[in-house]
Write a structure and sequence with these properties.
- The chain has 329 residues and is of the alpha/beta class.
- It has two domains: 2-175, Rossmann fold, CATH 3.40.50.970; 198-328, Rossmann fold, CATH 3.40.50.920.
- The chain is built from 13 helices and 14 strands.
- It has helices at residues 7-10, 24-35, 53-58, 70-82, 93-97, 101-109, 137-142, 158-167, 214-227, 245-255, 270-280, 302-308, 313-328, and strands spanning 2-3, 21-22, 39-43, 63-65, 86-92, 116-120, 148-150, 172-175, 198-201, 206-210, 232-236, 239-241, 258-265, 287-292.
- The protein has a seven-stranded mixed beta sheet, with helices on both faces. The protein has a five-stranded mixed beta sheet with strand order 9-11-10-13-14, sandwiched between helices.
- Strand 13 (258-265), helix 11 (270-280) and strand 14 (287-292) form a beta-alpha-beta unit.
- The protein starts with a strand and ends with a helix.
Length: 329
């Protein structure tokens, strides 16, 4: 479903085009709820930015706006889950993880309840600066027992992650990003498998493993490197926990060099998860991480911040060049 936005709604710092955007996540959640009466929707006063206004308008009796109270929202979801419902709770990534981490661990993960935690505005993808940026959310959520962590690379996978979240009987963290511009062509839904990466491009010179918006940047970097005679594999690792360890090890053996790319701190995120797989298997190879360094960022447009903090394709190309030099030593 595509809906026009007013200037007030567009000021949520997600839609910067003032043009109608597809709401692939909101559509998928609503369709799932229409099939399964156990699904309920909670939001912390952020309905349009989290696409939950679609659910609100069609199924108002199963929609709950709890206000700006993320910790209470997780507690409410715990009670609903114990009563047989499947709550999807929504806010921005920074608010729905860091503000209520204790409630997540004790009221969702410890009892292993089917609470689906959905965050928008991942990493540096916001104009609102440090208070709204979640550059450490994957790290803290990945460390929670029973928690599954998913980050789709685009709206074509939004329906797929909703289905994966429902397949998992325990808690799930969905790290979502809405498109900032209308798509140039219709979005075609694609499938994902739990614990399986998607090999988006094949090459034998190196492997680039990415998640979220870093996937498109990695594919652009691969195109550029191909023009220089360097062919790299690119993996869309939407399933961060559980991770596709088999694919990581297979590509390590096939290519001999690896780079990870993520819109997140290099500490504790996808890069750390991949490194853990390699170390546990006793695999040594040139390995680099592209991500936010150990620092706070600032507000700005996504392309500006991706470039300033070395998260774009230019960084991935430089990292690949360094890995190649290391291979030849």
């Amino acid at each position: 479903m595509t809906q026009p936005l007013s200037k007030l709604e567009a000021a949520d710092f997600i839609n910067r085009s003032f043009k109608p955007l597809p709401r692939s996540y909101g559509d998928a959640l609503l369709e799932a709820a229409q099939r399964d009466p156990r699904i309920v929707c909670l939001t912390a006063d952020l309905s349009p930015p989290t696409e939950t206004d679609l659910f609100r308008d069609v199924l108002p009796e199963r929609f709950h706006n709890v206000g700006i109270a993320e910790a209470n929202m997780i507690g409410m979801a715990g009670g609903m889950a114990r009563s047989g419902e499947i709550p999807f709770v929504h806010s921005f990534c920074a608010f729905v993880t860091k503000r209520c981490y204790d409630q997540i661990t004790m009221q969702a993960a410890y009892p292993n309840l089917p609470i689906k935690i959905v965050g928008f505005l991942p990493g540096v993808a916001t104009l609102l600066g440090v208070s709204h940026q979640a550059n450490e959310d994957i790290a803290i959520m990945r460390a929670v027992p029973n928690m599954m962590v998913l980050e789709p690379s685009g709206p074509q996978y939004h329906a797929a992650v909703v289905e994966l979240a429902l397949q998992h009987e325990g808690p799930v963290y969905l790290r979502m990003k809405r498109p900032e511009q209308p798509p140039s062509q219709p979005v075609e839904a694609k499938r994902l498998e739990l614990g399986r990466g998607v090999l988006r491009r094949e090459g034998n010179d190196a492997a680039l493993i990415a998640c979220g918006l870093s996937v498109d940047e990695s594919l652009k970097a691969a195109d550029t490197l191909s023009g220089e005679g360097i062919e790299i594999s690119v993996v869309d690792m939407a399933s961060i926990k559980p991770l596709d360890a088999d694919l990581v090890l297979r590509l390590a053996e096939a290519t001999g060099a690896m780079v990870t790319a993520e819109n997140h701190s290099i500490i504790g995120g996808l890069g750390s998860a991949v490194a853990e797989v390699l170390v546990d298997a006793g695999v040594g190879l040139p390995f680099k991480r592209v991500g936010v360094q150990d620092r706070f960022c600032e507000g700005g447009t996504t392309p500006y911040l991706m470039h300033k903090f070395d998260l774009g394709q230019h960084r991935a190309r430089r990292r690949r060049a360094r890995s190649r030099r290391a291979q030849t030593k």
